Amino acid sequence: MKHLTVIALLSCGLFMASCSKDSEPPGTNAGSGSVSAKVNGQAWSSKNDASGAIFVESQGTHSLQAIGADNSFISVLVPVSIASGQTYTTDNDAISAQYKTSFQGADTYAALFGLGSGTITFSVYNSDRVKGTFEFTGVKFDANGNQTEIKVEDGVFDIEL
């Protein structure tokens, strides 16, 4: 649970970071674009505005974050160096991912540190664009310790930096 809280706080902090290149701290790169996926078989897409889907690079950590029209939230955090054509997984803790039914809510399904599973592949990664695919199975536990899962599949992202 401690890891979920840290990931959630880091994700929220990165999401709140400005997408304006004029106000970015040194060593930060950010941009906006689109994200789509299937969540438990249902079509999902990010809001169609500048804050709907963002990608932030800062201090060696890369974060893809998107808010849906229903205010649900998807994020994938990659705390390692990345390159075009590479796939990163939860198997070696190279990524963590989460789906929240509400951006500000506590109902979180996570894939991190051996909990759940997931991958992200960067087909394009350069100074102008980040593009690729992702999928993950997020897990949450209720107050009685019962586990439920959510599948985020066929994820696609295209972000201009």
Commentary on this structure:
- There is one protein chain.
- With 161 residues, the protein is mostly beta strands.
- The chain has one domain.
- The chain is built from one helix and eleven strands, in the order αβββββββββββ.
- Strands 1, 2, 3, 4, 5, 6, 7, 8, 9, 10 and 11 form an eleven-stranded antiparallel beta sheet that branches.
- A hairpin with a 7-residue loop joins strand 7 and strand 8.
- The longest helix is centred in the N-terminal third of the chain and has 15 residues.
- The N and C termini lie far apart (33 Å).
- The N terminus is likely disordered.
Give a summary of the structure in a few sentences.
The chain is mainly beta and 161 residues long. 9% of the residues lie in helices and 52% in strands. The protein contains one helix and eleven strands.
The oligomerization state is single chain
Structure classification: mainly beta
Mean pLDDT: 85
Task: Give the end-to-end Cα distance, rounded to a whole number of Å.
Answer: 33 Å
- Describe the main β-sheet briefly: 11 strands, antiparallel
- Kindly provide the radius of gyration, computed on alpha-carbon positions and rounded to a whole number of angstroms: 15 Å
User: Which geometry do the CA atoms define?
Assistant: globular
Question: What is the number of helical segments per DSSP (H or I, 4+ residues)?
Answer: 1
**Annotation, overall tally of beta strands:** 11
